[in-house]
Every structure is written in C-alpha cells, then in structure tokens.
C-alpha cells in the first residue's frame, strides 16, 4: 500500500503540473473550472482530480509490475510453489513413555499425522508430520566418540537398550542428528562417506556390516515437506526443501541384519571406525558434545499445514472477486495456503448435490459429465487491516469464454490447505510435558519440538523475479551441458535463495565447473542386460569447500538434484571433487531417470 501511495503522489503531481499548461493554453475553460496555476478552487473538481489520480496510479503500478496477473496465472498452472509461502517448520520428537505406553513391538505412525500446539497464547496451531515414524520399544542408552590409541583412529560407539517385555528384530533404525549445525554436518559426512569398519555387537555375537548399512534419508519424492501436488516438479520440491529447511536431511537410516534379534532388557551396540580424513581434527571438540541426546529416535519434520473447509461464498451479480475466508472466527490466526477443490451446490429433486468446479487454467476442461460450465481462478491481493498490510486470497469465476460468470446456484464451498502464518514461530519449545497434543491411538506419548518453529518464508513479489522463475522451468540436461552450464546451475539454485542468505550464496558460488558428457554403463553392476546410455556430470568446487562442514550434504543434494535431470530411459552419474585435491573425488551411485517412453 505504501508503494501505491507513492504512485498516487506522482500522478497527482503530474496532473497539477499539466494543469498549469492546460490553463495557459485554454484560459476560458480553465476559468470555468476555477483553475489557477493548475489547481482548482472548486473542491468538487479537486476531488475528481484526486480520484482520477488514484485510478491512474493503480494502472501505472500494474504496468511497472509487468502485469503480475499474467505471471501469477502461469505460475499457478505449472509451479504454484513459487507463489506460496514456505510454512513454519520444525523437527518433532514423538517419545513414548517407557512405563505407560505399553509398546512391546513396532508401531508405525504414518506421515500426515495431525499435531496441535499447546503453549501459544495467540491460539492453537496445527502441524502435520512429514515422515512416517516407526516407534520401537528401544532407547539410545549410551553414546561415545573416542580416539583409539591402538589403531590411531576415531571410533563412534552407539548403545541401544530394549524395553522390558519387548523384542527388536532386523529393523531399520532412523536417527535424527540433533545438535549444532557444524557438528551435525561433520558427523553426517563421516557416517555417510568415511566409514572404515562397521560392526554390530550383541553380547558375544558380532555382526559385520557394510558401510552402506548407514544411508541418508529425506531425498525421496514422498519425503517432500510440502503437500504432494502434481504441478510441483520433484526437482523444485527438492530445491525448496534443501534451501528452506536443511534440518530435514539430518536423518540417517541404519539397517540391522535380518538375522538379528534382541530380547527384553538387553543391549546391543554399533561400533563405527572412521577413515583418516581432513575432518578428523574436528572430532576432538565434537567428542565433548556428542552424547545420547545427539542421536534421537522417533523423530520427523513437521510443517504448519492443515486441511480446512472455507466459509461458504454467496455469489452475486455485483461482485467480481470474493475473499476466501477459512474461518470467520479466527481470521487473524489462519491464512489460505492453497485452494484444493471448489464445489457448487446444485439442487436436484429436492436434494443438494455438490458439483466440482474446475480451475480456469487447469487441464481437466474436457470433462463433460457434471460440468457446471464455469471455472474458478484465485488471486493474491493486498488488503489494509488495523494491523497493517496483509496478503489475502480472492477467487473469481468465469465461463468458457473467460468472461465473468454468475451461475444459477449461489453457494460455493471450498476445500483449502491452510497455515497459521507467523504464529508458530512464537512457540517456546521444550516444555517438560511436551509441546503438542495429538489424536494418535497410542498412550503415553510426549510430543516435543526439538527446535523453535521457523518463520514462514514469503516468495519473491517482484514480477521481474517471477519471470526469471518461469524462464528457469524449462531447464534440462541439454542446457546444463553447454559452456554456460555451470552459470545456469548456479542461477537455478540462487532463485531459491529468496532471503539472500550469505551462507547459501557462498556455497553456491563455490561451484566452479560443470562438465557433462555422454557415457554407456550398466544400471546394475552384475547384470549385462541393463546396459544403457547415460550422462556423466563432474562438479568441481573451489578449494574453500574443504573447510565447509556443509560440503558433503551439498554434494549429496546435488547428486539427487541432477539425477532428476536424467533423460527418458537413461541415467546420470555424478562425480564431485574439490579443485587441486584429487583425493576428494567421489563418484556417486548411478541414478536412473524417472521418465520412460509411452
């Protein structure tokens, strides 16, 4: 609104300046209007001039903004994540009580479980879990990082204890690394890439494990933070997660042997021996902070998104756009994040039938059965409230010719996905009794936020930035393979740095070279029938990357990210290294393309 005020003042000044020229050229008309030196003594004429200045200022602003309605419509159809705020997010620990929960076997909490905040004065905030959580009757009993004088190597000892009356068989344990980001990134790098020896101990029994028994989590398509939307490409969903909430990737999966079984009240331990690397000099400091609380079981990211039925809309002939109100009683606590479905009430034989209304820029316009002949389109508008300027969602309706339409039925209902905007960020996490309530069918659960929920990140509002986003959506491996490929890659990554964070900018600028060439290799090493053509990509980082704890996670992310560029019926193989440091060369696993010829 402040921006509109500046346009209004410019237009008013322009009219007054040209009023002087008008008065000098047409003095008789100016006298009848009461104009002297470009200003009229008639208050009614002044009001007309001011009203006209307001109208022209709005037109001027829209022209300067490159018609934001156009870019908004394009992005709504092909990449709606660029128009939505990244909601408040946190890591949640779901901790069953050892005495009262009664857990003796694994219990799976599916992704999407609803959590309600407890200790926020402004109101109850609703979150949903992102990962499925496997609750096991198991606790992290002891953790130690130590230097062994005999083999001159660093060892990590993780001890687990099985609860009374329970057994644990060959499960997969998911651990969240909870600690300072530098410590987490260093240990994450060592556990994912620098294991020399890995053993599982249970009493006198020893189970040698491969280093691949420990793997990174969070990179699968179903692990995305935002709700699954077919319009959001997996490439962009992964980018959004990495840049807005990297803690989502601080999870490791440990696969226990199928033949392994631990009985009640017994303990077993993992012994990890690390390679000698340039990171080892950090471990002496890490040994002082790594304890049983550093490795957390039963954790998942949680995001402030929840379903909501909007207030019904009564259509009238005099209204072009209608505000979408999630809850009339809690307008200051709930924001619309996405419109999922729109229905129109139709009366048939004394029954009320809900007929779906398709989006104007959707892809389902060929449907004839149940077609109501109108379409909907949403807009984001600025509105003034007592608290200041707010962004609200409006909805409009059009017929097949894209003209405004008012159907015969006059009641519209909407299914929404909503957020509590910035309210979750005010939560003080760490309450002794937990921070969330839930309706999970398990007793004795303490649900806590391990970190304070983040502030929502708003998408860029400048239309020029949105045009850059649209231009980037067509990127493919052919563009990346050119001489300007590394520049295009850096530009793509920088588009997601909405807040221009220096740490992210520094890591992106460390990418110096990108070499792309065709190769032929087996998708499965022992199967000659899986021979296929693919793309080899070599990423070279500047020497400063050696001192960055986030370097490995960045490479891991780029491996999965570039893997999504694999052509149809093909694969990618990514190699990363630091310039002039050949020992840092790492060839990542072959990643098959997700597309196939139809």
What is the secondary structure topology, with strand pairs?
Elements: H1 2-25, H2 27-32, E1 35-36, E2 39-40, H3 43-64, H4 68-78, E3 89-96, E4 107-109, E5 114-117, E6 126-129, E7 133-135, E8 138-148, E9 153-162, E10 172-177, H5 181-193, E11 195-202, E12 205-209, E13 214-216, H6 234-244, E14 251-255, E15 267-274, H7 283-286, E16 295-296, E17 299-303, E18 306-309, E19 313-314, E20 322-323, E21 335-348, E22 351-359, E23 374-385, E24 388-399, E25 411-419, E26 436-438, E27 445-449, H8 463-472, H9 477-480, H10 485-494, H11 502-509, E28 511-522, E29 531-541, H12 551-563, E30 571-578, E31 581-587, E32 591-592
Parallel strand pairs: 22-23, 29-30
Antiparallel strand pairs: 1-2, 3-17, 3-27, 4-7, 5-6, 5-26, 6-17, 8-9, 9-15, 10-14, 10-16, 11-12, 11-15, 13-14, 18-25, 19-25, 20-24, 21-22, 21-25, 23-24, 28-29, 30-31, 30-32
Question: Per DSSP, what share of the residues sits in E-state strands of 2 or more residues?
Answer: 25-35%
Q: Count the beta strands.
A: 32
Summarize the amount of helix as a percent range: 10-25%
Structure annotation, total helices: 12
What is the 3D form? globular
Separation, N- and C-terminal Cα atoms:
50 Å
Return the domain count.
Answer: 4
């Amino acid at each position: 609104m402040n921006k509109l005020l500046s346009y209004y003042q410019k237009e008013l000044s322009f009219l007054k300046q040209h009023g002087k020229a008008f008065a000098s050229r047409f003095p008789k008309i100016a006298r009848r209007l009461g104009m002297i030196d470009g200003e009229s003594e008639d208050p009614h004429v002044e009001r007309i001039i001011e009203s006209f200045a307001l109208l022209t200022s709005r037109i001027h602003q829209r022209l300067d903004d490159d018609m934001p309605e156009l870019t908004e419509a394009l992005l709504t159809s092909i990449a709606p994540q660029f128009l939505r705020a990244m909601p408040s997010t946190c890591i949640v620990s779901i901790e069953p009580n050892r005495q009262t929960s009664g857990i003796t076997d694994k219990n799976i909490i599916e992704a999407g479980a609803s959590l309600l905040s407890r200790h926020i004065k402004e109101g109850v905030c609703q979150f949903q879990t992102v990962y499925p959580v496997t609750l096991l009757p198991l606790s992290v009993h002891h953790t130690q990082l130590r230097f062994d004088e005999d083999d001159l190597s660093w060892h990590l000892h993780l001890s687990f204890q099985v609860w009374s009356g329970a057994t644990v068989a060959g499960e997969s344990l998911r651990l969240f690394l909870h600690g300072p980001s530098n410590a987490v990134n260093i240990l994450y790098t060592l556990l994912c890439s620098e294991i020399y020896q890995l053993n599982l101990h249970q009493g006198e029994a020893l189970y040698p494990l491969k280093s691949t028994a420990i793997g990174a989590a969070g990179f699968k398509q179903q692990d995305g933070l935002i709700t699954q939307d077919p319009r959001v490409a997996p490439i962009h969903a992964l980018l959004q997660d990495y840049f807005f909430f990297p803690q989502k990737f601080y999870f490791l999966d440990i696969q226990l042997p199928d033949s392994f079984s631990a009985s009640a009240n017994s303990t077993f331990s993992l012994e990890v021996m690390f390679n000698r690397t340039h990171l080892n000099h950090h471990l002496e400091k890490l040994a002082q902070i790594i304890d049983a609380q550093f490795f957390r079981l039963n954790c998942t990211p949680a995001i402030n998104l929840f379903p909501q039925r909007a207030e019904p809309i009564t259509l009238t002939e005099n209204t072009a756009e209608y505000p979408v109100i999630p809850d009339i009683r809690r307008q200051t606590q709930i924001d619309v994040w996405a419109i999922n479905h729109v229905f129109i009430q139709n009366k048939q034989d004394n029954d009320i039938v809900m007929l779906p209304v398709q989006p104007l820029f959707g892809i389902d316009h060929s449907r004839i059965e149940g077609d109501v002949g109108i379409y909907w389109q949403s807009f984001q508008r600025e509105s003034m409230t007592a608290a200041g300027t707010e962004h609200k969602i409006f909805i409009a309706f059009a017929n097949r010719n894209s003209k405004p339409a008012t159907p015969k039925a006059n009641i519209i209902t909407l299914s929404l996905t909503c957020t509590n905007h910035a309210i979750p960020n005010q939560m003080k996490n760490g309450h002794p009794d937990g921070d969330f309530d839930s309706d999970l069918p398990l007793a004795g659960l303490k649900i806590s936020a391990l970190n304070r929920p983040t502030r929502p990140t708003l998408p860029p509002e400048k239309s020029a930035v949105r045009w850059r986003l649209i231009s980037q959506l067509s990127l493919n491996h052919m563009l990346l393979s050119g001489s300007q490929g590394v520049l295009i890659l850096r530009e793509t990554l920088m588009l997601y740095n909405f807040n221009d964070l220096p740490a992210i900018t520094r890591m992106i600028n460390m990418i110096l070279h990108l070499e792309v060439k065709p190769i032929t290799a087996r998708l499965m090493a022992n199967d000659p029938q899986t021979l296929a053509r693919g793309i080899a990509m070599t990423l070279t980082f500047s020497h400063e990357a050696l001192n960055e704890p986030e370097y490995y996670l960045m490479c891991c992310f780029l491996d999965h990210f570039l893997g999504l560029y694999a052509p149809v019926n093909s694969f990618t193989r990514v190699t990363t290294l630091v310039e002039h440091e050949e020992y840092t060369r790492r060839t990542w696993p072959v990643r098959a393309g997700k597309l196939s010829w139809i």
